[in-house]
Structure formats: C-alpha cells, structure tokens
Amino acid sequence: MNRFSEIDLHSNNSVVVVSDEPDGIVYQRRLPNDPVQIRVALAPHRENLVGLVIEATFNWYWLVDQLMNDGYRVHLANPAAIRQYEGLKYSGDFTDAAHLEGDPVRRIDLQLSLMRSGTSR
To answer: Which domain of life is it from (predicted)?
Structure first.
C-alpha cells in the first residue's frame, strides 16, 4: 500500500507523519533535528513511501540533501502558498504535518517544488 510522509521542520525539532492511501496515520512523532533519528523513523516505511513533503521556512537544506542522497522522492512545500488550516478543526504541529499531506503528491492546492539532484539553491 502506498504511503506518504510529511515533515514539519522547525528550528530544533521535526514533526514526522507517515500515512497510507486511505489517509490513515500509521506513524507520528516529534523528533530532534537529527538526520539519523529521522532516517530511522522513515526506514520501516521506505519500501512503500512514494513521496515525502517537507514544510520549512528556512534551514531545510541539510534534511533535503540527506533524504535525497538516500533516494527518497522529496518535495518542498512553500508555507506561504499552502491554504493553511482550511477546514481544520484543531491546529498544532501534528495536525499541521498531517494537513500537509492531505494527499501530498496528489494534492492540487499544495504547491510543491520537486527537488532534483544538483539543483542550485
């Protein structure tokens, strides 16, 4: 079954959510901004992970580079372009990360930039 991951990247921690096609959350955790811990969290889902969305306003390079080097298909969400919290009953880091996904790779109103290897930033 296809899975999608969303990471809401903050200055000192990240909220990592993994969900499956019927929009069921199968993993959610707040982790320190440690690439090893984030990669370990994603590893059990890697085989079925078809896309990974990262929302960050700054300082996202280290995580995007690490995940792309590991072969993940990474999308960078532009927080200014997201219809933030539209229709959400509750707001917080976990719901924000899950809202990012909503349908991460398939979603029309989430403007994504597909990061390519060697793209200048």
So the answer is: Bacteria
How much is the pTM?
0.71
Q: What share of the chain is helix, strand, coil (3-state, %, to 5)?
A: 30, 30, 40
Residue with tokens 């930039």: 113
**Residue carrying the six token digits 């200048």:** 120
What CATH code would you report for 3-114? 3.30.420.40
Tell me how far CA of residue 54 lies from CA of 38, 41, 89, 97, 105, in angstroms: 12, 15, 22, 9, 12
CB atoms within 10 A of CB 107: 17
Mind listing the pLDDT tens digit for each residue in 43-62? 999 999 999 999 887 889 99
Tens digits of per-residue pLDDT, 57-85?
788 999 999 999 999 999 988 776 665 54
